[in-house]
Task: structure prediction
Amino acid sequence: MHTTQRSSHPLLSVDGITKSFFGVRVLHGVSFELWPGEALGLVGENGSGKSTSMNILGGVHQPDGGRMSIAGLLYAPQSPREAGRAGIAFIHQELNLFPNLSIEENLFITDFPKRGGVPFIDRGWVRRRARELLAEVDLDLPPTRLVGNLAQGERQLVEIAKALHADAKVLILDEPTTSLTRREVERLFAIVNRLKSRGVGIIFISHALEDVMHVCERVTVLRDGAVVGTDLRERLSLPAIISMMVGRSIDAIFPERDTKPREEVALRVRNLTQRGVANDVSFDIRAGEVVGLSGLMGSGRSELARLIFGLDPMESGTIEVAGTRLMRPSPKASMAAGLAFLTEDRRNEGLLMDASIVDNIGLTFLKRFKAGPGLINGKALNTTAGELARMVHLSTDRVQDTLAKHLSGGNQQKVVIAKWLLRRPKVFILDEPTRGIDVGAKQEVYRIINRLVEEGGAVFLISSEIEEVMGLSDRILTINKGEITGSFERSRFDREAILAAAMAPVGPKREATA
Amino acid sequence: MLVSEAVSRRAEREAGRSRWKAAARFILSEYLVLALCVLYTLVMIPFVPEIATVEVWQNILSDMMPLLIVCLGQTIVLIIAGIDLSVTAIISLASVVGASIMTQSDGYLSGPLAAPAAMAAMLLVGAGIGLLNGLSITRLNMPAFMVTLATTTFFGGSAIWYTTFHSTTTSIYDLPDMFISIGDWDIAGIPIAVVIAVAAALIVHGVLAYTILGRWLYAVGKNPRTAYVSGVPVRTTIMSAFILSGMLAALASIVYTARLQTGTPILGERILLDVIGAVVIGGTSLFGGKGKVIWTVFGVLFLVLIDTTLKLLGASLFVIYVIKGSVILAAALLDTLRTRYLGVR
Result:
C-alpha cells in the first residue's frame, strides 16, 4: 500500500456499476476506488467503457445497478450539476471554455460574485480570486486575457483552475495530454502532483500509456465494459497493460515489414520555403519507402505537410510527384499528380460527419464513377466503397446508411484512409494517423501502411509519438522551426539522438519567449 | 435506495423515449409535408367546400408553378448552406429587360425573333446576377446573406430605374402574343407553365441526385473544408449554385411576366418570404447539406394551399401573413429539432 493513503474511507468508491443502452449492456459491473492524493490511470480501448463510466460518475448518465460513494457517503448524481456540487470535476478532451471571453470571465461564468445583493459584478474580487487560482496552476497570465488567445495547454490549466474554484475533490482528466506540447505536458504533471499533495484524487484517462505510467500511482484497465485488473504502477509494464487492454498478448505493436525502398523517387521536394513555416526544405521519398517526420509541437510538422499538399501557399521551391512537377499547388492538382493527405483534424477537414460512409469515401474521386456527361454511377460507387470498407476492416458493412459521426474514432480514421485509397495514391501523407484511436485500431492503421508500401506506395508519416515514427519508418527526418535538422536511416534509429536533432537550434537565433 | 429510485425514474424516461421515437419517425418522414397537405385539405372542406372542386385545384396548380421554379433554385443554394435573397430582384429586372426588348410599342426588336431573344436575355440577366453573387461570395469571401441583400437592393432599384426609360407608367405593356401564350396555352390540356415547371423540377432533381455536381453541392454544404481538402472544386460548386438559382429565377420571371402580360419592376417584390418559406417548410435545411426537390414541391404546395384556402375564407391579407409566418416559423423550428436531436438527414 502506498503512503498517501491516510483516511479510512476511499475518497471515491465505485462498486459494481452496470449500464445498458437500448438493451445492450455496455458496463458489466465496473468497480474501482480512488484514494485521496492519488492519481488513478484509467485505460482501455475505445468502447471499453471508460467514457460511460466517467459519464456516470459525472452525472450525465445514471447507472442501472451498483453504487457509488464519496468519502463513505452514498453518491447518486442525477445531473452534472449535482456531480459538481459533490466535488467531482470533469475536464473534457474538448474543453468547455468560451474563447470570446476572458480568463476571469470563464472562471466565474456560472457564479459571478455579486456586490451586496445588487446585480453588479464585484470586479475587484473577481480579479483577486482569478490571480490566486491562476497562481495555483502556475499560469502567469493576466486574468483579462481572452481565452481564444491562449495555447491549448494554457486553456486546459484554466479549466483546472475552474475546478479548483469549485473546490473539486476528484478531478477527472480525459485525454489531457493529446494536444499538448511536451513542455505543457511537464507543467501539467507538476500541477497534478501538487494537487495530489493537497489530497485531491485524480482520475487520468489516456491512450498515451507512457503518460499514464508517469503520473499515476495505480492503473485500472477496462475491457468490454468490465475491469480487467487494477495494480500498482511498479507491478505493471507497457506490454502487460496493452495485452490486458486487447485481451491477447501482442508480440509486436508494429507489424513486421521486410520490403526495401525502390529506386524511383516518388516525392521530390526542393528548397521549399514559406516565411515562418518552412525554410529551404529539401528531401526525397522513394517508392516503397516510409519516411517519418519527427518534431516537437509547433516545429512546423503539419505545416510542412499542408504546404506539400497545396493547402497553404508557398513562396518558392519545387515539388515533384513521380517525376511530374506540381506547377500551381492546390489539393486538386496534388491529387491529380498522385498525392493523398490524411489531415490531423479528422472532424473538421477529414470527414463529412453528417454524410454516409459511401459519400465520404467517394468524395475524393467521383469522376472515377462517371457515367455519361456529368452523371455518376451510384451503384458502382456503392460497390467500390463497400470493397474499400472491407479492405480497411471497417466495423460495419452498412456503408450507405451509416453516418460518419456515428462511428468510433478508429473507424472514422479508417474511412478517411479508405477515401484516399480510392485514388491509389503514389504518395500518402499521413498527419497524426493514430491520434485519439485505440490500440487495436492503431495496429490496423499500421498494417494498412505496410500494405501500401509493399505495393510500391510511398508514405510520409507525421506523428507526435516517436515510438510510432521509429516503429514504421525506413528513414526519419527531424524538423525544428520549419527546418530539416536531421536525417536517420533505420539502422541508426536512436530515440535520444532523434529527440536531440528535433530540438537542434536552427537558422538565425530567435529568442524563445513564453 | 437512491440508486433504485433512480432506476425507476429511468424506466419512466425510457418509456417516454420510445413514444418520442415513434413521433420522431413521423416527423422525419419525407412525406410528412404531403401528409399535412392532405390532412389540412380534409379539415378545411367543411369551411371551404370549394377546395374540393377541380377549378380551385387548377388555380392552386397554376399559382404553384412559377413559385416552384424559383424555389428549385433556392433549394440548391440552401443545400450549399447559402441563401439567395436576390431572386426577387432577378424576377423584376428580367421582367422589365425582357419586356423592353420585345414590347410592340417601341421595343428593341420586332418580328418573330423578338420573343425568343427577349427570353434569352432574361435568362442572361439571371445568370449574370447569379455569377456576380457567386464571385462576390467565393472571391471576396463575403457572406451570401450580405451579398444577395446588396444585389437584391441594387438590382431591385435598377429594375424600376430601367423601366422609366421605356415606359411612362410603372410597367411595360404590348408584349407579343407568342410570348403571352406561355401564360395561357396548353398542350393536351396541360398548361405550358406546368410543363416548364415540371421539366425544371425533373432537371434539378437529376442534377442533385445523379450528377457529380450534385454530390459536390451536398458535400460543400456539409463541410466546405473537408470538401476542399478532398479535391472538390468548392468555388466552382458555389458559383454553379448561385448561377443556377439566378437562371431559375429568370425562368420563373418568364412565366410570371407572360401570365401578367406586362413587364413590371415590382413583380418579385412580395414573394421572397414565400420562396424561402416554402423551401424550408419542405424540409431543406438552412444549415446546409440536405434538401430534395420533392420536399420543395410539397413545401410549395403547402404554402399555396394555405394561401388559397385563406383567401377563399375571405381572410384579410394581414391575417394570411400572420398565419404564413407562423407556419414558416414552425418549419424552421422543426429543422432545428431534426438537426439537433435526431441527427438524421
Observations:
- DSSP finds 17 helices and 22 strands in chain A.
- Residues 1-5, 509-514 of chain A have pLDDT under 50 and may be disordered.
- Chain A touches chain B through 37 residues (CB under 8 Å).
